[in-house]
Amino acid sequence: MIPVRVEGFAYGGEAFGRLPDGRICFFRGGVPGETAEIEILVSKRTFARGVLRGVVESSPDRIEPVCYCAIRPGTGCFCPGCSFQQIDYDAELRWKQRQLSDFLLRNRLAEAHILAEPVPAPSRFGWRNRLKLSVVGGAAGFFAEDNRTIVPIEHCPLAVPAIDAVLPECCRNAVGDQVFFRWTETDGVVVNGGVAELTERVEEFGEFTVPASSFFQTNIPVAAQLARGVAEILTAIGARDLLELYCGVGFFSLVAAQSVSELCAYGVELDAAAIDCAVRNARRRGVEPRCRFAVGNAEKWRRPPGRTTPDVVLVDPPRRGLSERLIEAIKNWRIPHVIYVSCAPDTLTRDLRRFAGSYRVAGCRLYDMFPGTAHFETLVRLDLQ
């Protein structure tokens, strides 16, 4: 065993510290400020990866994980999803903010003063409204970090209580390769599909019809906070014409139309079922004349003939981020403002580099959409220079 002083968290949730020879060693389950005992599993010329075997001197931020599958000193196989269960929530939020700051400031993409205070999740547990388990050899669970070994589970503290309550029975009787759970306040728990559409309720923004196979935000209370943040930006810039790419069922466009009087929105989404729901969501809210939606590839979208340049384009892409082609198109359109909703700060950083020179980062805020895990959502405002 090798003693390592834990220096921090890398993006992705691994702790890191220096070995006696000066190399960085990455491992899960450590807490910055403590001294850990590490067994080296992978040794490279410039770095190493190891497993936590013990804690010599504990950090005051260390707590006992809630989940029985969480990373603990000396344990073998564990679920790698909850990278921060061994630290208290204030420390988790601090480190996530530090990671976002490092991405932006080290790359000289923003100034420190524009980073707002992070928005915490109302609850660290019981927020996850969708869960996908893999089934291998009759065992249902999450893949361990080797992507081969299954960590069987019968409970998940991140899942909404209704999903957690049915996990034991469903996992014991799992068939096929996967078990997929989804929950809404209106529909309850739906296992492995079985319904075409669901109804999501988002606090003051009301109900949204969503295809059961389509994306919607995983943490509804934080989704409401994020929607408020988008509406605040649109109000601040006096937006009147919004283009939303990757619009899904029209969540942000509809919130914008409800929150900003006279604003018109045009949403583009490749998922035809989601667009059908977006149209019906707009009709039910009485904003159909101001919210229009079309099926199309956001990466290849071109402004319809005769349509004026919008005040703002809002993008909420998947983890891979935006294509360079789309960024160049937005720059060429010279749209005054871009609102970028990102679930991946690494690809966000890459994309902001591509926007640099034409747009400046005018605002940035972290929303902790995925507490307990290594992930978070970022809301960025870009202004044309």
Q: Can you give keywords for this protein?
A:
alpha+beta; OB fold (Dihydrolipoamide Acetyltransferase, E2P); Rossmann fold; 3 domains; 5-stranded mixed β-barrel
Describe, in plain words, how this protein is organized in 3D.
The protein has about 375 residues and is of the alpha+beta class. The chain folds into 3 domains: about 1-85, Nucleic acid-binding proteins (OB fold (Dihydrolipoamide Acetyltransferase, E2P)), CATH 2.40.50; about 105-125 and about 220-385, Vaccinia Virus protein VP39 (Rossmann fold), CATH 3.40.50; about 130-195, no CATH class. It is built from 7 helices and 19 strands. The protein has helices at about 90-105, 160-170, 220-235, 250-260, 270-285, 325-335, 345-355, and strands spanning about 1-10, 15-20, 25, 35-45, 45-55, 130-135, 140-145, 150, 180-185, 190, 195-200, 205-210, 240-245, 265-270, 290-295, 310-315, 335-340, 360-365, 375-385. The protein has a 7-stranded mixed beta sheet, with helices on both faces. A 5-stranded mixed beta barrel has the order 1-2-3-5-4. Strands 8-7-6-9-10 form a 5-stranded antiparallel beta sheet, covered by helices on one side. α3 packs across α4 (about 250-260). The longest helix has 18 residues, at about 90-105. The relative contact order is 0.11. The mean pLDDT is about 95.
